Amino acid sequence: MKKIVVIFVLFIFVFGMAFSNDVEEKQNKPEKPIEFTVSPLIGFGNIASATYLKENWTAFTIGFNLGLNTKNGFTFMLSEYFLLNGKVKATDYPVRYDSYVDGYIYDDAVLNLKGALWEGSALFGYTYKNIKNTHVTAAAGLTLGVGFPKINKINNSTEHNNDGFTHNITFVNFGLPLHVGIKYFFTKKIGIEASITEVLSFGMINSTNRLDGFYTGFINGFFLKFGPVFRF
């Protein structure tokens, strides 16, 4: 995964520098009243739940941003991304059922998670454009997330046997995203973008196989993403 990220960054840098002569052309043209941007992005995501198993999920993230910017700075964005697989650190996880005590044995655990979680945000904000070739955006809005991942291994518990083990999860969250992003344009139409999004949300999790129940509570999401940006 680290090699993919390094190659991705180098590709963006070389591709942008190859067309850097277009920057002077941009400076001589009046700004469009409305511009659109498209950004395919990769990065890192973390979702932490204080209610359900006190879990902390870290995963690779891939997605895109679609933006509309007006001349006066008003910005509307659609941000769509997926968290893929990863590890979950869970506190007091039910590692096995004990018939002698007629209940679960609980332990802190590191879990292998397979599957994806989709997060989509509609954002409204402002883009500051008074730095040469640079756009800085601050925005907020609404987020909806849905996922159906599966826990298929408990890594560090001596109480648990992983043979044939699965734990299916249905995950839904709804909340407030706070977004800050910066774009630097090498050329008239091509640049690089980095962004941070913090999501404060209310989540609902319905799990099967090992736990039967419906859990609700506060969930915090943090996403760091980067990639090329294309302007139209």
**End-to-end Cα distance:** 31 Å
| Rounded average pLDDT | 78
| Largest sheet data | 10 strands, antiparallel
Classify the secondary structure makeup into a structural class.
mainly beta
Number of separate strands: 10
Number of helices: 2
The helicity comes to under 10%
Which percent band covers the strand fraction? over 45%
Coarse shape: elongated
Taking pLDDT < 50 over at least 5 consecutive residues as the criterion, the unreliable ranges are 1-27
Give the helices and strands as they follow along the chain. HHEEEEEEEEEE
**Alpha carbon gyration radius:** 21 Å
Provide a compact summary of the structure:
This protein has helices at 2-18, 22-27; strands at residues 34-49, 56-70, 74-98, 103-114, 116-131, 134-147, 150-154, 167-185, 190-207, 213-231. It has 232 residues and is mostly beta strands.
Keywords:
single chain; disordered N terminus; 232 residues
How does the SSE layout of this entry go?
Elements: H1 2-18, H2 22-27, E1 34-49, E2 56-70, E3 74-98, E4 103-114, E5 116-131, E6 134-147, E7 150-154, E8 167-185, E9 190-207, E10 213-231
Antiparallel strand pairs: 1-2, 1-10, 2-3, 3-4, 3-5, 4-7, 5-6, 6-8, 7-8, 8-9, 9-10
Descriptive report:
Residues 1-27 have low confidence and may be disordered. This protein has helices at residues 2-18, 22-27, and strands spanning 34-49, 56-70, 74-98, 103-114, 116-131, 134-147, 150-154, 167-185, 190-207, 213-231. The chain starts with a helix and ends with a strand. A hairpin with a 2-residue loop joins strand 5 (116-131) and strand 6 (134-147). It has two helices and ten strands. Strands 1, 2, 3, 4, 5, 6, 7, 8, 9 and 10 form a ten-stranded antiparallel sheet that branches. With 232 residues, it is mostly beta strands.
